[in-house]
Specification:
32% of the residues lie in helices and 26% in strands. It is α+β, with helices and mostly antiparallel strands and 302 residues long. It has two domains: 3-169, Fructose-1,6-Bisphosphatase, Chain A, domain 1; 178-300, D-Maltodextrin-Binding Protein, domain 2, CATH 3.40.190.80. β7 (159-162) and β8 (167-169) form a beta hairpin. α1 (3-19) packs antiparallel against α2 and α4 packs across α7 (288-300). The longest helix has 26 residues, at 28-53. The termini are far apart.
């Protein structure tokens, strides 16, 4: 069975399960914790079923949540990556998952900006000791309270898969003039005051040049803002983040990369070989001219 079908099914079942839950008198924080617990149980159960039925060994990979991004070691690595094995089949794949992307939004009561994110690798002969961004090739982002999910398998055009059966191809803006485009900007994860001040100086130039800018709490939500189905007028054509966790951007970047987005670090270097667990200053743009303008600002800040 294709991994894209597994990803779609898991995303659909997470959302279906969340929608049937009554919140009752839970506080925002209690509700966010409950959403995460229920979503993880649904994901694990669904993956276990697929592993048993289709001869898979699935290595679940999760990363710890760190508020703000403070508490990294000198190499920029967060706490140890957590892994759990489901099934014992002959086909070996890893699944990176975050069942509540946008935890802070849930705690603030903003349910429309909460999603489940999953990304799968291709099959391994043996599981590696570590994973890179490029190892993950299939992705799904499923808004908990939306009407469908965003889905892609490497090499294919990303789609929005509606729960009523309708499928829409996704697109990126073709606008190349930054004065007509919005940009997502995130310096929230800068680890020190000095790093944040540097990032903010860089971003001031972007804010002055681009038409508008935005910020959510949840990388999956932010990256989805660049795609045509949910885009605004003027559209979002760029994303800049300081010291972002690679696991946060993997599912969204798979979808955007397959649609033709340009994804690099702040110097314009590819990030596909960066290891899971690292931090990266990332630039994502809908096309090369917009990418050049973003890197002009980010690179000169060093």
């Amino acid at each position: 069975m294709k991994l894209v079908e597994i990803a779609k099914s898991v995303g659909e079942h997470i959302v279906s399960g969340v929608r049937t839950i009554e919140r009752g008198d839970l506080s925002n924080s209690e509700w966010a914790e409950f959403l995460e617990t229920e979503s993880e149980q649904t994901a694990s159960s669904r993956l276990k079923r697929f592993a048993n039925e289709y001869d898979y060994t699935i290595r679940l990979v999760t990363m710890p949540f760190k508020p703000k991004g403070i508490a990294h070691d000198p190499q920029g690595i967060d706490d140890k990556i957590k892994q759990q094995t489901i099934g014992d089949g002959s086909k070996k794949v890893a699944c990176l998952y975050d069942t509540v992307d946008g935890t802070w939004n849930a705690k603030a009561g903003q349910s429309f900006t909460v999603s489940a994110m999953l990304a799968f690798t291709d099959e391994f002969e043996n599981f590696p000791e570590s994973y890179t961004i490029g190892d993950f090739t299939t992705a799904v982002i499923a808004p908990h309270f939306g009407h469908g999910l965003y889905l892609v398998e490497n090499g294919n055009v990303p789609v929005f898969h509606g729960y009523q059966g309708r499928t829409e191809r996704l697109r990126l803006t073709e606008e190349t003039d930054p004065t007509n485009i919005r940009c997502m900007i995130d310096t929230f994860t800068a680890p020190t005051k000095e790093a944040r001040a540097r990032a903010n100086r860089i971003i001031l130039g972007i804010m002055d040049e681009w038409a508008d800018f935005g910020r959510y709490f949840g990388s999956g939500v932010e990256l989805m803002a660049m795609l045509g189905r949910s885009n605004t007028d003027p559209a979002y054509g760029g994303y800049v983040s300081a010291n972002q966790k690679t696991d946060n951007i993997i599912p969204g970047s798979i979808i955007l990369r397959n649609q033709g987005a340009v994804i690099t670090d702040w110097h314009g270097n590819p990030i596909i070989s960066r290891n899971l667990g690292e931090r990266v200053d990332v630039v994502i743009a809908a096309n090369s001219p917009l990418h050049e303008r973003l890197v002009y600002h980010t690179e000169r800040g060093y």
